[in-house]
Every structure is written in C-alpha cells, then in structure tokens.
Write a structure and sequence with these properties.
By secondary structure, the chain is α/β, with parallel strands linked by helices. The chain starts with a helix and ends with a strand.
Length: about 210
C-alpha cells in the first residue's frame, strides 16, 4: 500500500520542469496580502510543503530569500530545476513538517499553504512546535486549510483513522492523508493567543496568520 511519501513522489514522477507550462502554476491568492503586511524586503522565508514551488517562485521573484521543504524528493528536484530555469535563487531540501532541516530562529516568515491538513493531528501538533522552533521571535506564519465540510462522497476510497484523518487506500489518491479541521480545532492547535488573524476565502478556505 502506498504511504504518504509514495503519493507525493508519484505526483511529480511524470512532470518535466524543463517543458512544463508554468503559466498554469498560480500562487495562492493570500500571499500578496501576507508579504505586504507582515514581511520586509529580503526577508528569509520558508515554504513548508513547497510542492512544485508555485508560492516559492512568486516570493523569490519579489526578492525574498526563499527556502523550501517537501517530503517528496521529486518535489525538491522539481523546484530546483524550476528555479534554475528562471534564474531564481532558492534552497530546497527534503524533510517533513515535524522534522524541518533548518536551525532554530532561522526564518522571519513561514508559509504552509493547503498542506497542514495532509498529515495526522498528532503530526500537526508536532509540526507547529517545529515551525515555531525555526521561526525567529519576530517572525510570522501563514497557514491555509481547506473548508470544514464533510467527505461522504469519497469515504469508499479511504479509511478513517482514529483521529478522523482520512487515509486514501484506493484510487488515484492512494497513500494521501487528509483531515478536515473545524475552526475551534485550528484555534486549539495553534493556541488562540497566538493568532493574529483568522479569515475565510469565498470558497471556505481558512487563512490564518499567527506566531
């Protein structure tokens, strides 16, 4: 059975960054407001769960010192080739959310876009601790999570783990984890006193800026 890393490695297996049409790779709409309001020119920023680098690319083009971490070696290599193709500077490493391969107090910003809900709640708790370890005292975190509606239509493709995380066991998403968070669960995970803003997009995504 595929595990989580297998799934994300598979996602990048057939994509060639030398020929890929990056005009289709749009950054998250929340990024502009985040860097305008919370970052300074040239700040060092971590894209945690960087995937194909759409958000890292956007920030690097605006002069930020970008680092990315992803569980998939394929994603790391894809980002490296993407940045080389566009003559952008960035550092990408393989790692996990709960074991970030950077030193303490290293970043002034950490972004984790549509990724924290692809791990178990236990891993998410450890990951928040780890994010705060690599974040400077004056740094800020941007998180986005999917809407909190239910997933009855895909339950036949997944098993539900004890913490309500879904693990896909068949179909194209076999190996992927996904957990729907309620708003109060997010606030408990982060500590309400650490939350700077908690907003919703038109489609229900939660957008949180916190420390």
């Amino acid at each position: 059975m595929f595990d989580l890393q297998d799934y994300w490695e598979y996602c990048f297996k057939e994509i060639d960054p030398e020929t890929y049409d990056f005009s289709k790779s749009k950054p998250a709409a929340t990024l502009a407001g985040f860097y305008e309001n919370y970052l300074k020119d040239g700040d060092t920023v971590l894209d945690l769960g960087c995937g194909g680098g759409r958000n890292a690319h956007y920030l690097a083009q605006r002069g930020y010192n970008i680092h990315g971490v992803d569980i998939a070696v394929g994603a790391v290599e894809f980002c490296q080739k993407r940045f080389a193709r566009y003559n952008l500077s960035g550092t990408f490493k393989q790692g996990t959310f709960d074991n970030i391969p950077f030193p303490d107090d290293h970043f002034l910003g950490v972004i984790c876009i549509a990724a924290l809900d692809h791990i178990t709640i236990e891993c998410a708790q450890a990951s928040i601790t780890e994010i705060r370890r690599v974040l400077a005292a004056s740094g800020v975190i941007l998180l986005t999570l999917d809407p909190p509606e239910t997933d009855e239509d895909i339950l036949d493709e997944a098993e539900v783990l004890p913490d309500s995380t879904m693990k896909f066991i068949r179909g194209e998403q076999a190996g992927m984890l996904f957990r729907r968070y309620q708003n109060e669960e997010i606030k408990s995970l982060l500590g309400e006193q650490n939350i700077i803003s908690f907003d919703h997009t038109e489609n229900g995504d939660r957008v949180i800026v916190c420390r």
